[in-house]
């Protein structure tokens, strides 16, 4: 039997490959899907079946792209009107050589969510693994808010039933294979354990020990952000995303071409570090460090205007492009040839934002001309504490609350370390704020320098829940 977990970094998405007897099935494939066909060729197997545990909200599903070269059948939950594939119901079974996958309908995270129970009939009739999608994670369960606030209680009740009537009654030895790991936006606090079992989750996952009433209240009041791009993911994954065939080819743009593109609403994203961005950048560009791309591009980039990348040395841009493709940004168009150096060598205008250390902020904290803006998620602010006198707006919702920020004062923006602070600074600059400073080190550096964080009750300016 072949078993392989494929991890997509940053998004913390897990897909799975199982195979035996010359056949292979893929569960929850990603859009850049060549890795699955490579595994099939290496194992001398044929991919015959593709399963989607649910329509997904945080990435573009890859089943259509994988079915194109393999001609494999696509299966998904029957409670959603997908425009491709075949709907499946509780109890249906599918063979992959001597392996058998049984469908368990496990709604709650989404209405059509399914789990897949694996048996290796050549060895035993006992279940071996269960692929739980976003119903059950290591240390957590799926979020239930994505169908809308009016359906949140119903979804929470459905998820409780799915967990306690379908998954937890399985033998303790069954290995749990969720669609996401730690860091995913599809859960609240997913553990970083690579593998877990039904028995281990029953013993350690605190959400599973709650009564139905306690569980539902916890989920109804859970505070999680919903990035704007989720709506596009639901649409694409229901209708069937466009086929990409391969990663898009990026065009190399000159500095002058990019200056012209900016006038035509091109979206220029600077993927360098916060310190590089602060030292000098193209006016009007968005600062999202490489590893932050899949986390924050979905808040501020649209799906129509071309996207151009700015780096220092343009190394391994294909890796960055994968982040865009996995979130459906097929409008990724090119990059600045020669890196940022090509911009200033051309004598083009450069914009800068200030940087402060914790000691700089401490020295000016009582200055009435300073306005400290905390852009962390509200859970971090409440759990870890905040800098006294600071105001809170989550970075993903900053554009919705610009009117609350005083333009005449010097804005010192901070996050946990300085990366989200750089993003926030670039957004403020783009909207005309001219006195913006990023606190390098954020609250981590602030605590390391032995400055206090306070935890008294304070209502944030942005009352939206956090990732």
From TrEMBL:
Keywords: Metal-binding
SUPFAM superfamilies attached to this UniProt entry: Metallo-hydrolase/oxidoreductase, Rhodanese/Cell cycle control phosphatase
Superkingdom in the source lineage: Archaea
SMART domains: Lactamase_B, RHOD
Pfam families: Lactamase_B, Rhodanese
Span of domain Rhodanese: 262-352, 366-455
Database matches in InterPro entries: Metallo-B-lactamas (IPR001279), Mito_Persulfide_Diox (IPR051682), POD-like_MBL-fold (IPR044528), Rhodanese-like_dom (IPR001763), Rhodanese-like_dom_sf (IPR036873), RibonucZ/Hydroxyglut_hydro (IPR036866)
Family annotation (PANTHER family): PERSULFIDE DIOXYGENASE ETHE1 (PTHR43084), PERSULFIDE DIOXYGENASE ETHE1, MITOCHONDRIAL (PTHR43084:SF1)
UniProt-recorded name of the protein: MBL fold metallo-hydrolase
Organism name: Methanoculleus nereidis
């Amino acid at each position: 039997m072949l078993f392989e977990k494929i991890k997509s970094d940053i998004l913390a998405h897990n897909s799975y490959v199982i195979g035996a007897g010359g056949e292979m099935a893929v569960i929850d494939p990603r859009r850049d899907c060549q890795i699955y066909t490579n595994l099939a060729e290496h194992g001398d197997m044929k991919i015959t079946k593709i399963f989607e545990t649910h329509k997904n909200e945080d990435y573009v599903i890859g089943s259509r792209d994988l079915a194109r070269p393999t001609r494999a059948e696509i299966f998904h939950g029957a409670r959603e009107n997908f425009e491709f594939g075949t709907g499946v119901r509780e109890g249906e079974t599918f063979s992959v050589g001597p392996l058998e996958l049984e469908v368990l309908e496990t709604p709650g995270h989404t209405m059509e969510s399914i789990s897949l129970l694996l048996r290796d009939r050549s060895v035993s009739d006992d279940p071996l693994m269960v692929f739980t999608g976003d119903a059950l994670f290591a240390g957590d369960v799926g979020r239930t808010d994505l169908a809308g606030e009016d359906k949140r209680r119903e979804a929470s009740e459905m998820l409780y039933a799915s967990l306690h009537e379908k998954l937890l009654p399985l033998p303790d030895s069954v290995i749990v294979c969720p669609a996401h790991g730690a860091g995913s936006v599809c859960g609240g606090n997913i553990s970083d354990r690579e593998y877990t079992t039904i028995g281990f989750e029953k013993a350690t996952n605190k959400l599973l020990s709650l009564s139905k009433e306690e569980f539902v209240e916890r989920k109804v009041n859970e505070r999680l952000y919903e990035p704007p791009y989720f709506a596009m993911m639901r649409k694409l994954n229901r209708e069937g995303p466009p086929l990409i065939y391969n990663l898009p080819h990026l065009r190399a743009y000159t500095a002058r071409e990019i200056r012209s593109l900016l006038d035509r609403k091109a979206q220029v994203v600077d993927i360098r570090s916060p310190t590089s961005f602060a030292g000098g950048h193209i006016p009007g560009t968005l600062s999202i460090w490489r590893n932050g791309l899949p986390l924050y591009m979905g808040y501020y980039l649209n799906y129509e205007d071309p996207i151009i990348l700015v780096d220092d040395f343009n190394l391994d841009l294909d890796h960055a492009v994968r982040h865009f493709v996995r979130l459906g940004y097929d409008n990724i168009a090119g990059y600045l040839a020669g890196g940022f150096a090509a911009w200033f060598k051309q004598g083009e205008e450069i914009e800068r934002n200030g940087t402060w250390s914790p000691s700089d902020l401490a020295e000016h904290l009582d200055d009435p001309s300073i306005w400290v803006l905390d852009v962390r998620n509200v859970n971090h602010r409440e759990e870890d504490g905040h800098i006294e006198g600071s105001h809170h707006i989550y970075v993903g919702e900053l554009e919705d609350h610009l009117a609350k920020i005083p333009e005449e004062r010097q804005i010192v923006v901070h996050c946990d370390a300085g990366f989200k602070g750089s993003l926030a600074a670039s957004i403020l600059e783009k909207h005309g704020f001219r006195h913006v400073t990023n606190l390098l080190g954020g609250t981590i550096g602030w605590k390391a320098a032995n400055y206090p964080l306070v935890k008294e009750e304070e209502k944030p300016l942005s009352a939206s829940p956090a990732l």
